[in-house]
Amino acid sequence: MDISVVVPLYNEAESLPELERWIARVMEENGFSYEIIFVNDGSTDDSWNVIKALSQTNPAVKGVSFRRNYGKSPALNTGFRRAQGNVVITMDADLQDSPDEIPELYRMITAEGYDLVSGYKQKRYDPLSKTIPTKLFNATARKVSGIKNLHDFNCGLKAYRHKVIEHIEVYGDMHRYIPYLAKLAGFNRIGEKVVHHRARKYGKTKFGLDRFVNGYLDLATLWFTGKFGAKPMHFFGLLGSLMFILGFIAVVIVGAVKLWNMNHGYNYILVTDSPYFYLALVLMILGSQLFLAGFVGELVVRNSPGRNDYEIDEELNVTP
Ligand code: UDP
Ligand code: MG
Predict the structure, then answer these.
(1) Pairing state of beta strands 87-90 and 3-9?
(2) Pocket, ligand 1, Cβ cutoff 6 A
(3) pLDDT, tens digit, for every residue of 57-76?
(4) pLDDT tens-digit profile of 228-247?
(5) Whole-prediction pTM
(6) How many angstroms is it from 73 CA to the middle of ligand 2?
(7) Which of 92, 78, 86 is nearest to 154 (CA)?
(8) Start-to-end CA span in the chain (Å)
(9) Which residues surround ligand 2, an ion (CB under 5 A)?
């Protein structure tokens, strides 16, 4: 099969028939063999019935329905586990992404050798309250992930080589960082295509402004686990040691100054009257706590079943 289109959706009943017709038309015009996997993320409207009806007229329509709402990432992951096409395309259900982009995305994966191509909604039809924070968000994501050529990490329209989706696990709210997940899994050829974006036609957006707070927290998590997930001591140990040493030096100075003044007959203050003593104390305590966190982290890693799972690309003449 050429293409799997994975569509996560939550209460998008009005958009679905139009979306299905449009995708089917593009596929037929280009002669692709395809499937559309609708992942119903616990919709409370008529979405699932609409999907069932669509599958009656188009055998390429497939679906999974969650009993409750989990979020876009769990929906995508579930679709990925079931996708069979050589190229997997994800697309929002709200008709903001255009299926007309599919043939070019497909070509970029199959002919130009990209592992992942992300859409870029250069001209967006979203409120300003969303577009401005989005710019900031993408700038940070570029910096942290080191994927310098992406402008729109969270674009719902993306294309993947099948191998990529086999090796990434999208959970929580991590759909915002799929390119970063792919990079962490060793897929380097990540490209971008400017795509047309349209205003939402039916229904309303499912994400509020908390997306930005959560987005940054998730980015921090990915950065940390990507860099130190297998060796937490390198993070906590370094930070803890630095703080402890700084605190220790400060305590020694505070004490030495007092002794020196005392011995030379100057006025001196008790160590416990100096504010620096307390700062130094706090540094030393926090430093040792961080160090301990590093040890605990190492114990966790030692027992994690995935500690020796590596992304193996190919093997030659070895028996594993
Ligand atoms: N979505 C989902 N589960 C959720 C929230 C959203 O499957 O809990 C789907 C939603 O139906 C849509 C896509 O994710 O197909 C993108 O959502 P939305 O259009 O609300 O986001 P925006 O375009 O505002 O970023
Ligand atoms: Mg949308």
Answers:
(1) parallel
(2) 8-10, 12, 41, 69, 71-72, 75, 92-94, 96, 156, 205-207
(3) 999 999 999 999 999 999 99
(4) 999 999 999 999 999 999 99
(5) 0.91
(6) 14
(7) 92
(8) 30
(9) 92, 94, 96
